[in-house]
Structure formats: C-alpha cells, structure tokens
C-alpha cells in the first residue's frame, strides 16, 4: 500500500493530492458514526459504512451531474482518455502518461491518447522548421 501511495503522490498534481488528503481527513472524522458497521476497504470514495459504492448508483449519480451541468453523457472512464489526451497535447511524453495511468504496456496508453488537429498542425509546422529553417 505504501508503494501505491508514493506512486500516486508522484503522478498526481500537488493540488489533487492536497484535496484527497482533506477528503481522507473528513472520512476519518465521519468513520466513528458508522460504529461497528464500519468495514475498512481503504477506499478513497465509499459508502458511509466504508463499503464500496454500488456501481449502478454511481453511474446514476454521474449521469445526473452531467445533466445538471448541461454536458453530454460520457462514461466516468472516459475521463482517463481525456486526461491522457490533455497530457499528450501539453507535450508530456507517452511513457510518463503510461506511468500516470498505471498501464503496463505503452500500447494501451497509446489507445487512450487521441491526436487532435492542433497537434497535427504543430507537427507539420515543426517539420517545416526542421527542414526549411522556418
């Protein structure tokens, strides 16, 4: 578990690590209310008794949040694709993205990243500069 936490702190933005620590502190304050019903699964997000959140309820709540925000429906998992693509667009090396996402094979990471028009235009501009000194 310690290795997992070290890697997470190494691969997450400091602001997110701070927010997650605050969340954990709140969980620890709320834990006594569960009393003997508390089950320690060491989860970041859980039911008030420590057990995993029901995936159906989680999907339903996610859908409600998207609807209230006026955003088209996407799966929670699609956020991983978005994160990978945003990192790639910012020039982060695919191997670093692989580590952040926890993939054992870089080909999986490559499937998560999506190259947009701006990146393609930038690549063409760079190639032009390299070949013709522009």
From TrEMBL:
UniProt superkingdom: Bacteria
Cited Pfam families: Phage_integrase
Zinc as UniProt keyword: no
Keyword line: DNA recombination
Domain Tyr recombinase: 1-125
SUPFAM superfamilies in the record: DNA breaking-rejoining enzymes (SSF56349)
Keyword Oxidoreductase attached: no
Name under which the protein is recorded: Tyr recombinase domain-containing protein
Species name: Pseudonocardia adelaidensis
């Amino acid at each position: 578990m310690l290795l997992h936490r070290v890697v997470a702190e190494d691969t997450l933005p400091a602001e997110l690590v701070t927010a997650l620590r605050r969340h954990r502190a709140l969980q620890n304050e709320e834990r006594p209310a569960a009393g003997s019903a508390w089950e320690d699964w060491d989860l970041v997000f859980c039911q008030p008794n420590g057990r995993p959140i029901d995936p159906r309820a989680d999907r339903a709540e996610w859908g409600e949040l998207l609807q209230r925000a006026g955003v088209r429906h996407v799966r929670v998992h699609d956020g991983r694709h978005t994160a990978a693509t945003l990192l790639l667009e910012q020039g982060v090396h695919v191997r670093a993205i692989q580590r952040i996402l926890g993939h054992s094979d870089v080909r999986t990471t490559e499937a998560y990243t999506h190259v947009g028009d701006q990146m393609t235009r930038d690549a063409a501009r760079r190639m032009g500069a390299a070949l013709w000194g522009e």
